[in-house]
Specification:
Elements lengths: L4 H12 L5 E5 L5 H8 L3 E5 L9 H6 L5 E4 L14 H6 L3 H11 L5 E7 L1 H7 L1 H10 L3 E7 L2 H9 L5 E4 L9 E9 L1 E6 L12 H5 L2 E5 L6 H10 L5 E6 L2 H9 L4 E5 L21 E5 L1 H4 L2 E8 L6 H10 L5 H8 L13
Parallel strand pairs: 1-2, 1-3, 4-5, 4-6, 9-10, 9-11
Antiparallel strand pairs: 6-13, 7-13, 8-11, 8-12
Length: 345
C-alpha cells in the first residue's frame, strides 16, 4: 500500500527496471512520470498519440525494443483529460502481449505460463511436461487453473490463461484455435473378483445391468459413453457421477459399482499397475472398452488473437510432438471455425 499513485509507480519501477530498461509513455503525459522512470534507472520513450489524443496502438507496438519493460497508460489522461473509449480499453488487453514480444526479443525466459485444464489432465497428464518445462525454463512459473471444459474455454476467452487443455467443448468456440493433442480410450475398473473381470468380450448390454460410476456429463468423454448406450436404446444405471477419477476409483473399492474412467487414470509407463501420481491400482481389474465407447481426442486451445511466448510453444511440444511451433502458428493464422474445419489429427 502506498500513499498515492506516484509512490506506487516509484516502487513498481524500482522493482521492475534494470539500468537502461525502457518505459513507453504516450504523449502528452504527466511530467513527473519521467522522474519516476529515472528513479528506477530506466529510460523514458515517448510515444505519439492520435490527433484526438487517443492511443495509437500501432505506434506503441512499433516502439517496442529488446529493452522495453513497461508501458505506462492512465485514463482519464493527465493532462489532456482524454477518456479512452470501450474499444480502446479492450485493445489495451494486448499490452501484455506487447510486453511478451519484448521479453522474447530480449530472450528473457521468465514469466508465468497460465494453463486452464480439467482435473484428469492436471492429475495424470501434465506433471511430466510441467517438470520438463521447469527444467528448460527455471525462471518461468506455472499457474494451473482447474475447471470444467466450459470454464477452460471461458478463461481463454477472458485472457485469464495462455492455453487450455480438455477433451470436451473446446472446438465449439469460434474465438479459439484448437489442435488435437492425443487420443485416449475409456477403461473399466472393478474389483478383481467381479464376474466381468474375467469376461473376454464385454458388451454394452452387460454394462447396462450393472451399477456404474463415471464422470459428470460435461467431463472426460462422458458424452461418448451416453451416446453409445443411446445407440443401443439402453438405459444404464448411473450410481454415482464425479469429476475426479480418483473419486470414481474410491467408490468402486467400496463396492458401489463398476467404474468407467479415462485410461490415463490407470496408466503408468505403459502399464495398468498404477499411474504417474503414485496411486496404485493393483487391487483393481482394468479392462479396455474402447471398442464400446470409441476414441476420444484431448485438444489444446489458444485464443485466436493472443500472443504466445516462446515457452508456451515449448510446453506444447512437450505435450505432444505433433504440436510443433510451426503447426500452432499455422493454426493461429488460419481461418478455421470449428472442429470439422480445424487442424485435425
Amino acid at each position: 500500500m502506498t500513499v498515492g499513485a506516484g509512490g506506487a509507480l516509484n516502487v513498481i519501477f524500482k522493482t521492475l527496471l534494470d539500468p537502461g530498461d525502457e518505459v513507453l509513455i504516450p504523449a502528452p503525459y504527466f511530467v513527473e512520470y519521467r522522474f519516476y522512470v529515472d528513479n528506477g534507472g530506466g529510460v523514458t520513450r515517448v510515444i505519439p498519440t492520435r490527433e484526438d489524443f487517443s492511443l495509437d496502438l500501432g505506434a506503441l507496438e512499433a516502439g517496442i525494443t529488446e529493452r522495453t519493460k513497461a508501458v505506462l497508460i492512465n485514463s482519464p489522461n493527465n493532462p489532456t483529460g482524454k477518456v479512452y473509449r470501450p474499444e480502446s480499453l479492450r485493445a489495451l488487453a494486448e499490452i501484455e502481449s506487447l510486453r511478451s514480444v519484448a521479453a522474447d526479443l530480449n530472450q528473457d525466459a521468465r514469466g508465468t505460463l497460465s494453463i486452464a485444464t480439467t482435473h484428469t489432465q492436471a492429475r495424470y497428464v501434465l506433471p511430466k511436461p510441467i517438470s520438463e518445462l521447469r527444467s528448460a525454463y527455471p525462471k518461468v512459473n506455472i499457474s494451473l487453473h482447474q475447471g470444467s471444459p466450459e470454464q477452460v474455454a471461458q478463461m481463454l476467452i477472458d485472457d485469464v490463461v495462455d492455453m487450455g487443455i480438455a477433451t470436451e467443448s473446446l472446438a465449439q468456440y469460434d474465438q479459439l484455435v484448437t489442435l488435437p493433442c492425443y487420443e485416449w480410450q475409456h477403461v473399466l475398473v472393478m474389483p478383481k473378483d467381479h464376474p466381468l473381470a474375467k469376461k473376454t468380450n464385454i458388451r454394452l448390454e452387460d454394462l447396462a445391468l450393472e451399477p456404474l460410476i463415471t464422470y459428470h456429463p460435461s467431463y472426460t468423454g462422458r458424452t461418448k459413453i451416453d451416446r453409445a448406450f443411446e445407440s443401443k436404446k439402453l438405459h444404464p444405471r448411473i450410481a454415482l457421477e464425479a469429476i475426479d477419477s480418483d473419486v470414481i476409483k474410491t467408490y468402486v473399492r467400496t463396492g458401489l459399482g463398476i467404474g468407467i474412467v479415462a485410461e490415463m487414470a490407470v496408466q503408468a509407463d505403459g502399464n495398468t499397475s498404477g499411474n504417474a501420481s503414485g496411486d496404485s491400482n493393483q487391487d483393481l481389474a482394468v479392462v479396455n472398452v474402447g471398442h464400446l465407447f470409441g476414441k476420444n481426442v484431448t485438444r489444446v486451445a489458444f485464443k485466436r488473437s493472443g500472443y504466445l511466448r516462446n515457452f508456451v510453444y515449448t510446453f506444447a511440444e512437450l505435450l505432444s510432438e505433433r504440436l510443433s511451433k510451426a503447426a500452432i502458428v499455422s493454426a493461429m493464422n488460419g481461418k478455421a471455425t470449428g472442429e470439422n474445419d480445424d487442424y485435425a489429427m
